[in-house]
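User: Hello! My lab partner asked me to get a predicted holo structure for this protein. The small molecule is coenzyme A, SMILES included with the sequence. Please write out the structure tokens.
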Amino acid sequence: MGASLTRENGARMVTLGEGTWSVRDSSDADVADITQIYGHWVEHGLASFELVPPSPSAIAQRRLSILADGFPYLVAVESAGGLLGFAYASWYRTRPAYRFACEDSVYVLPMAVRRGVGRRLLDELVCRCTAMEFRLMVAVIGDSGNAPSIKLHRSAGFEMAGVLPSIGWKHGRWVDTVLMARPLGVGNHGPPVERGRLGQN
Ligand SMILES: CC(C)(COP(=O)(O)OP(=O)(O)OC[C@H]1O[C@@H](n2cnc3c(N)ncnc32)[C@H](O)[C@@H]1OP(=O)(O)O)[C@@H](O)C(=O)NCCC(=O)NCCS
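Assistant: Hello! Below are the structure tokens for the protein in complex with coenzyme A.
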């Protein structure tokens, strides 16, 4: 499975075809496409509690901050170079006792959903964060009705941890937050391995 990107009337088009795609670390050059994908879901979805799509410079700054903390920031790209999705890990919360818990974020190009891109990105995040000695990955999912994200996380080994009902107000309605979590490595079986500072406060 793959996709090729063309531009028609200035709009970004994706044609899914027989090409291949892969997951790699993001680069500065990916920021424009990441901004576009994220902006779409901010405007048209409830997964993110942001109300206004951030600018490319805001996304660039956020990305650098995530990388500076040592976290992976990944992209899925088709063989012709078009971006199909992105994912990164970050602190779940920054107080020190949370230092073995991370949070994932995954966003896929609308035209490329349901083709395994989200799962591949999430699996790679799990792998990288396990290697970094994190013991729990948390998904903070906007909207109880976000079946694609809830099912994606369940398929990747996450279990339901709770729902914060009507904690957000977006697009004219109350929105829940769904919390899911997945142990990494041996999870809570045994103490964690203290490692060097990872940018934690
Ligand atoms: C959630 C999202 C990242 C899923 O990405 P994706 O590439 O479509 O997911 P995948 O194709 O890898 O699907 C993996 C599994 O998730 C589940 N899934 C994904 N989309 C689904 C859908 N629309 N309906 C039911 N199950 C779905 C399935 O179990 C699927 O496995 P299967 O296809 O073998 O049955 C994508 O829909 C998206 O970007 N949504 C908007 C933003 C968002 O909600 N991000 C998550 C923030 S926490």
